[in-house]
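Colleagues,

For the teaching module next term, I've prepared a clean inverse folding example: a structure given as tokens, and then the sequence designed for it. I'd like students to try predicting residues themselves before seeing the answer, so please don't circulate the second half yet.
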């Protein structure tokens, strides 16, 4: 079983990582090509392209200028510890055992606009580049065209290594659009997390994002290898609802957040 999640906009490069072990991203040549495109942009260009403040644009122009492909613990940090946000609060990688981190290194991938596909312990330098950004490049008018089938190919490699034929989609729609389902050598299971509000079950963004991280953590703590085991997910009050689910869309509901 292989799981995918989205990255986060918020980064933490101040807190020391929980483990010293690290790996290198596999697709850095592609990342370097994107950096070359981004370095041609002014802070004003970046602000308009990404719809962010002038201060954030200036910060990221500086990041692009400083970016260099020789990643070390001195200039980069493992992705699972660098990303912050709702998904990563649910995952809480800093409190996981080394055994659980090893599981995530094998079974979890982070989709990224700049890095394509990251393993949890892959070093990465700070950046801002969402997958939905319409950044014109030598391969097309946006990042989906830039990555083409590269992301899918990398996921297929890992699925083959694991001997698995199921991918669990815990990513947002924006990021999962970088995956080509027809070219993926796996069935795609998508967990859906709903909370009861005003008498109805609804997807509430904050809770759903957190639940994605919680499920990845739950799997890591138990060493889950068969996706069917995920139906036992019960963190923070969620429970599998067979009646509301379909073969590839698994609904998890809870009464109270």
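(Answer key — instructors only)
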């Amino acid at each position: 079983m292989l799981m995918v999640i989205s990255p986060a906009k918020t980064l933490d490069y101040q807190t020391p990582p929980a483990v010293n072990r690290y790996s290198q991203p596999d697709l850095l040549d592609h990342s370097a090509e994107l950096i070359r495109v981004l370095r041609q942009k002014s802070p004003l260009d970046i602000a308009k392209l990404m719809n962010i403040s002038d201060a954030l644009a200036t910060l990221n122009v500086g990041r692009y200028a400083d970016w260099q492909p020789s990643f070390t613990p001195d200039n980069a940090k493992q992705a699972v510890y660098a990303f912050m946000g709702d998904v990563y609060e649910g995952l809480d990688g800093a409190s996981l055992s080394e055994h659980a981190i090893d599981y995530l290194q094998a079974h979890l991938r982070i989709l990224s606009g700049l890095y394509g596909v990251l393993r949890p312990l892959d070093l990465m330098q700070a950046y801002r580049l969402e997958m939905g950004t319409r950044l014109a490049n030598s391969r097309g008018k946006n990042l989906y065209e830039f990555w083409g089938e590269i992301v899918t190919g990398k996921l297929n490699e890992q699925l083959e290594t694991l001997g698995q034929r199921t991918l669990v989609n815990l990513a947002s729609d924006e990021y999962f659009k970088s995956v080509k389902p027809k070219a993926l050598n796996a069935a795609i299971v998508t967990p859906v997390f709903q909370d009861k509000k005003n008498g109805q079950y609804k997807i509430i963004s904050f809770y759903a994002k957190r639940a994605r991280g919680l499920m990845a953590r739950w799997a890591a703590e138990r060493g889950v290898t068969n996706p069917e085991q995920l139906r036992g997910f019960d963190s923070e009050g969620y429970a599998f609802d067979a009646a509301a689910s379909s073969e590839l869309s698994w609904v998890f509901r809870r009464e109270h957040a």
